[in-house]
Amino acid sequence: MPRQLGMLIPADHAQRLVLNDEVHARPYAQVEAPERVAFLALLSGDSGSGAAPHALARLFERMGRPVPRLDVPHVSADLGAFRLIWERHTEFASYTFFCRGDAGAPFASSALDAVPADWLEALPGETIVATQVAVAKAPGPIPAAREIAQSFADNPIVGAAVASGAACVFTDFRIHPDRMSRFLLLDRGLGRYQAGRIVQRLLEIETYRMMALLAFPVARRVGSEISAAERTLSALTERMAGAGTEDEPQLLNELTRLAASVERSVSASKYRFGAARAYHELTRDRIRGLREERIPGLQTIGEFMERRLAPAMNTCESMAKRQDELSARIARSSDLLRTRVDVEREQQNLQMLAQMNRRAKLQLRLQETVEGLSVAAITYYAVGLIGYLAKAAKSFGIHFEPDLVTGISIPIVAVLVMLGVRHIRKTVMRAS
To answer: What is the 3-state secondary structure (H, E, C) of 91-117?
Structure first.
């Protein structure tokens, strides 16, 4: 009996199946001309991210279909009147609706026409992208740009041949009176999955460019804040050059407040600028995936983005860089001022130590003077006692002169007292 290899392989990692299925989690839709595609991306935030799945459940109940799992990031279903792909992203939720079109004007009807209007109005979040893609069969040769522009309210359009010439894409990147932007995809020999991939890339280009541009208003606001902070820093630096010791604590306090203000600005904008870099790179990647070929007289989508989107992203990068440079300048100024304060403090400490040294010397001299007086006083009293003893001895019949004994004892007692005082002082010093 052949062995079952699965029984011989070590146990699976807890996330193995989840990680393996991640690459299959968002399959491309099958699209075949004529087709109408409508796409909504709604900024949900923390509160809306939980409300979006419940809104999706209400739609399935409304259409009489089983409610899908709400804990998954991707749902794809055929609801009869239209097909739906729902995706949950970090900052937004997206809804893509597909329905069959007709051979009439590309944007005469929309896939949203089949979606319940009250359900659409009640969707949680704020619309950041609303676009529709009309997929139509190419009528032989590529139509003239003037003819294509009629579908875009005669606005200037951009476009290119994509997928090695198997299709053409046109758009004006404008929001029309129906509050939606437009893409026209002319099928010149696409397969259903290939058409689905192109539609997905177009929707992602529109979504990621808008998400990247969310950082642009932040960059403008941060720019004015940085300019004001730079002026303040320049004024503080000039004051530092001529400041005295008494002014340095106030300057350090003002620098600290300025540093806190700049760091607060950095914290508030750092995520947005980082997200803008990521979304911009995703936009460029999706444009590269189109494999554009120029149509005479038209800008390609890639050229349009490099001319219009890239400057905004460069502004965001510049503001992020200025923030970092300003933080570094403030840190250097603070370090310089702290060094000055530390040097002043060390000089003050040296002066205090010198004063303490002088005081110690004075105390030593005073102590030596006191010791001399102490020796004299003790000698005086001791010699007085010896004089009394000599007089008492003479009264007992011992024959010597008390005054002579007293005079002889003076130097002896003085030397002994001096030696004793020195011994006591040395003993105390050793003990301390």
So the answer is: CEEEEEEEEECCCCCCCCCCHHHHCCH
Would you list the domain boundaries of the chain? 13-200, 215-292+299-351, 364-431
Q: Is the peptide bond before 34 cis (omega within 30 degrees of 0)?
A: yes
pTM, two decimals, is 0.76
The full DSSP string for 129-175 is EEEEEEEEE--SSPPPHHHHHGGGTT---EEEEETTTTEEEEE----
The alpha carbons of the chain give a radius of gyration, in whole angstroms, of 46
What pairing do the DSSP bridges indicate for beta strands 126-137 and 35-43?
antiparallel
For residue range 272-311, list pLDDT tens digits in order. Answer: 999 999 999 999 999 999 999 999 989 999 999 999 899 9
Q: HSE on the CB side for 411, CA within 13 Å?
A: 2
Amino acid at 408: I
Report the amino acid identity of residue 385. L
The b/e string for 160-182 (b: 16+ C-beta within 10 A; e otherwise) is bbbbeebbbbbbbbeebeeebbb
Bridge-based pairing state of the strands 83-88 and 74-78: antiparallel
Tokens representing 2 are 């052949």
**CA separation for the pair 138, 148 (Å, rounded):** 12
Distance CA 198, CA 211 (A): 20
207: number of Cβ within 10 Å: 23
First to last CA, the chain: 93
* Coil vs helix vs strand at 248: helix
Determine whether 103 is exposed, middle or buried from the number of CB atoms within 10 Å of its CB (0-12, 13-18, 19+). exposed
Report residue 406: phi and psi, to 5°.
-65, -45
CA dist 222 and 319 (Å) reads 7
Counting as low any pLDDT under 70, the low residues of the chain are 1-8, 23-26, 45-50, 368-372, 394, 397, 399-400, 432
Residue 130's CB: how many other CB atoms inside 10 A? 19
Residues 314 and 330: their CA atoms lie apart, in Å, by 24
**Which two structure tokens, joined as six digits, stand for 101?**
């079109």
User: What does the alpha-carbon distance between residue 92 and residue 127 come to, in Å, rounded to a whole number?
Assistant: 9
77 within 8 A of 84, measured Cβ to Cβ: yes
